[in-house]
Design brief:
By secondary structure, the protein is of the alpha/beta class. The chain has helices at 12-23, 37-47, 63-70, 87-95, 107-121, 128-139, 192-198, 248-255, and strands at residues 3-8, 28-34, 51-55, 78-83, 99-102, 149-153, 156-160, 165-171, 174-179, 182-186, 204-208, 211-214, 218-223, 229-233, 240-243.
Length: 257
């Protein structure tokens, strides 16, 4: 039995890793890739995959928006969630018989997930659309992970509204947070990966492995060189931020360009 797969992740290296691992499995065909929730919904309608490997923590629309869209499909695909999500969500996945794999991926875990999906697809009575509805109900309304970001400057600990943040940059073993009022060192999250997880419910996008920007603070987008883009932010200094070539597509998707 052939299983047609769609791989969805805003990080292209993660997509490429999963595509490679899936290519090593018998009777598995990757029919498409997507780097955003919006693109994933379109491709699911066009390609009608049997199985979707879905990243949950994507900027803008998350993996949960993809699930919501599938409720209206005549036949929803099966999902394997690719996540570093909190244990509450993982528990809900387990209760609703929806599989998940934690990042970083392993060949054995991916193969096990595909094996479970194969068993499910061979069950004539499976109703994945109903399961998606129950999963959404189990998870409840999706809210931002944090209400405030803790930062420090000159011995003071401050709490910022995430919407105040313009850019976050990784600096050696710390993260520097830039706002209209100045810059601070992140206190609650000491890595950019962790900070990105905390602000998953807000409109942030990882434009570079060391740079996270708030989409609403982008003033200007221009093509640069070698496929890269340049952002001009809305702070007083009109700060410029380079977008890596492999992040341009996702940025344009999130900005509607």
């Amino acid at each position: 039995m052939e299983i047609r797969c769609l791989v969805v992740d805003d990080e292209q290296p993660a997509v490429e890793e999963l595509v490679y691992l899936l290519s090593e499995l018998p009777d598995v065909t990757v029919v498409g890739e997507a780097n955003s929730a919006k693109e994933a919904i379109v491709k699911m309608g066009e390609l009608k995959p049997d199985l979707v490997f879905l990243d949950i923590n994507m900027p803008g629309q998350t993996g949960f928006h993809v699930i919501e869209a599938c409720v209206d499909f005549h036949r929803s695909p099966l999902f394997i969630f690719c996540t570093a999500y909190d244990q509450y969500a993982v528990k809900a996945f387990e209760e609703q018989a929806v599989d998940y794999i934690l990042k970083p991926f392993s060949a054995a875990r991916v193969a096990k997930g595909v094996g479970r999906a194969r068993e499910r697809l061979q069950m004539e009575s499976v109703s994945t659309t109903d399961e998606m509805t129950r999963l959404l109900e189990a998870l409840g309304p999706q809210k931002p992970h944090v209400v405030r970001l803790s930062v420090e400057r000159q011995g003071r600990l401050l709490l910022l509204d995430p919407d105040e943040v313009i850019v976050c940059k990784a600096e050696e073993k710390r993260v520097r947070v830039f706002t209209h009022d100045g810059d601070y060192l992140s206190h609650g999250a000491t890595t950019l990966d962790r900070l990105e997880e905390l602000v998953a419910g807000f409109s942030f996008y990882r434009v570079h492995r060391a740079t996270l920007v708030h989409l609403k603070h982008i003033r200007e987008v221009t093509s640069w060189y070698n496929g890269k883009y340049l952002l001009v932010m809305d702070d007083a200094a009109a700060s410029e931020v380079v977008v890596s070539r492999n992040r341009v597509k996702g940025l344009k998707e999130n900005l509607g360009l």
